[in-house]
Amino acid sequence: MSTTGPAAHIDDIDEPMVDSFGRPLRDLRISVTDRCNFRCQYCMPKEVFGPAFAFLPRDAILTFEEIARIARITAELGVRKFRLTGGEPLLRAELHKLIEQLHAIPGAEVALTTNATLLASQAEQLAAAGLDRVTVSLDSLDDEVFRSMNDMNFPVAPVLEGIEVATAAGLGPIKVNAVVRKGVNDQTLVDLARHFRGTEHIVRFIEFMDVGSTNGWRLDEVIPSSELVGLIDAEFPLEPVDANYTGEVARRYRYRDGAGEIGFISSVTQPFCGACSRARISAEGQLFTCLFATEGTDLRAALREGASDEDLTALLRRVWGIRDDRYSALRSEATEDLPERPKIEMSYIGG
Ligand code: SAM
Ligand code: SF4
Ligand code: SF4
What we know:
CATH superfamily: Aldolase class I
Radius of gyration: 20 Å
CATH topology: TIM Barrel
Strand content: 15-25%
Largest sheet: 12 strands, mixed
Structural class: alpha/beta
Number of domains: 1
Strand order of the largest sheet: 7-8-9-6-5-4-3-2-1-10-11-12
Bound molecules: S-adenosylmethionine, iron/sulfur cluster
Number of strands: 12
Shape: globular
CATH class: Alpha Beta
CATH architecture: Alpha-Beta Barrel
């Protein structure tokens, strides 16, 4: 088994890897744990993820070396960004050591999505290890609303402290993601925008998605981004900004008075499957080519059965080559009538 030689033949690298719709693989989301210290009702409702829930045992989870090996091979196939996620990624012991290994891979940046409860204590170490950027999930600044949405009665203050410490450690500007649920936090969104206006940080409002099968998703709880743009624009006038790159998921706007930027992620009402260049790896090494996939490819088995780098490269090429996922676009074409089918949970696949 070769683990140190070149990950792919030169002709493979020269030949861009694209799926059946011509989409390249650019962005790899890596879940490092399926555990979390929150129980956001839209993601890990307590009724399902309670004390009896069987999380993955330690030996089922990919080691840092296994993750870094897959990451290095995907970088040779075109990946330009690794995003660590979970569950809550900062619960994974010594995450900075994985970041060091990913940072050493040429040509790709390393990002992290976190609920920031443990960010203040880890930010300096993460930055020193080579983390390039951080996205913080923060659904409301209203303490009562926030405590109820994370369903662990966890206050807002430590999250804001995490953002401050991470910024001081050089990890800013930070993207602040808020999932919007009608009747839950929509009345607090203008305050969230106001708080980060005039800072380098960028708030992004995310439409509540029908990921997984346990969060009781209903279309009538989704506030379309077009409505949210109107809501913010009425308070702080906005103008659209061009996308930073092809496939950017957030629609960008800036405040007309120069107080910074804000984004809207409209996965439900304006799907972006056409330019989707993302793949996801679960903590146990299942590769998914769509957030709404029903089946993955077992990379852990391949790794642990002694696959060479060439074998893994061929496997990834094969899986990506036949990819034809466009779940959100299909859902949107079918409006509410898509047949029910089991979906992978967000906390497992990592968002
Ligand atoms: N625990 C980390 C966090 O919350 O940032 C990382 C994992 S979490 C699954 C990744 C992202 O998915 C978070 O920003 C979260 O808000 C988002 N998310 C989870 N369930 C969602 C849903 N049903 N609709 C939209 N976004 C969701
Ligand atoms: Fe945990 Fe993140 Fe899911 Fe909330 S969204 S339950 S913080 S994994
Ligand atoms: Fe990509 Fe699947 Fe989401 Fe479409 S539904 S944008 S293919 S992850």
